[in-house]
Amino acid sequence: MITGSLVALVTPMHPDGSIHWEHLDALVDFHIANGTDGIVAVGTTGESATLDPEEHCQTIGHIIKRVNGRIPVIAGTGANSTREAIELTTEAHKLGADACLLVVPYYNKPSQEGLYQHFRAIAEAVPVNQMLYNVPGRTACDMMNETVERLADIPNIVGIKDATGNIPRGAELIEAVKGRLTVYSGDDATAADLMLAGAKGNVSVTANVAPRAMADLCKAAIAGDRDETARLNDLLNPLNRKLFLEANPIPVKWALARMGLIGEGIRLPLTVLDQKFHSEVEDALNAAGVL
Predict the structure, then answer these.
(1) What is d(CA 27, CA 11) in angstroms, rounded to the nearest whole number?
(2) Residues with catalytic annotation?
(3) pLDDT tens-digit profile of 251-264?
(4) What angle do CA 221, 8, 201 make, to 5 degrees?
(5) d(C-alpha 111, C-alpha 141), whole Å
(6) How far apart are CA 99 and CA 92, in angstroms?
(7) Is 203 labelled as part of a ligand binding site?
(8) Tens-place pLDDT, residues 166-209
(9) Which of 17, 48, 69, 102 has a Cα at 20 to 30 A from 6?
(10) 147 lies in which domain range?
(11) How many structural domains are present in the chain?
């Protein structure tokens, strides 16, 4: 079982939007050196929405090769087309991903039965461990706990990234799927509370810029150390808020550029962080001790 801090890794880019492979290698090494427990490749934060299928798979393969078995790699392979999700998941499995992260289909708003059939079809088509991803604020489609409970009976559906930010609902889900499915937070602002309630890790945007502190927070929270969890959560809270002043990954890519780890490249329709937010993000980086 994968536990701890799972960074939702950005995809570094040149000014023209092409992928910056050298910066990507450096980021992988940066995370391994700073205690990150796993890398989520080409998820929302990795700009999956604007990478074409060839780039998508190439990036996953590049990260897997660079990691070289040092920590797990979870490949983002979700789509609002079941057929496309199966194709991406198949390719990630061939490339050697330890697991695949599959977002709830977006825009087309399937029913709960449609969600069940979608994820079941992918799981039956590709024999790789799979993690569901519910983020209704992004997808305009909310997968109910009851649907997750049904999916928990499928052997290779092993986890869910819960980005609802709803702690009572998340706690109910943890209890309902105990022993069948591992729950992870997907919301930095509420991750500490969900892990104290029994979640086994956090798929984190904040970990991009503060990997050591986020790894330590996850360890403390999973162990039930409330005092240390509270201390680290207070340290990271400014980042948890300010990295969402504009749509993710706009602020976190700017923050990483400010830290000198990547350039400012990002793909349209996303643009570089508005200058009016620069001081707020910089203050949060300073407060966390990473700048």
Answers:
(1) 9
(2) 133, 161
(3) 999 999 999 999 99
(4) 20
(5) 9
(6) 9
(7) yes
(8) 999 999 999 999 999 999 999 999 999 999 999 999 999 999 99
(9) 17
(10) 4-287
(11) 1
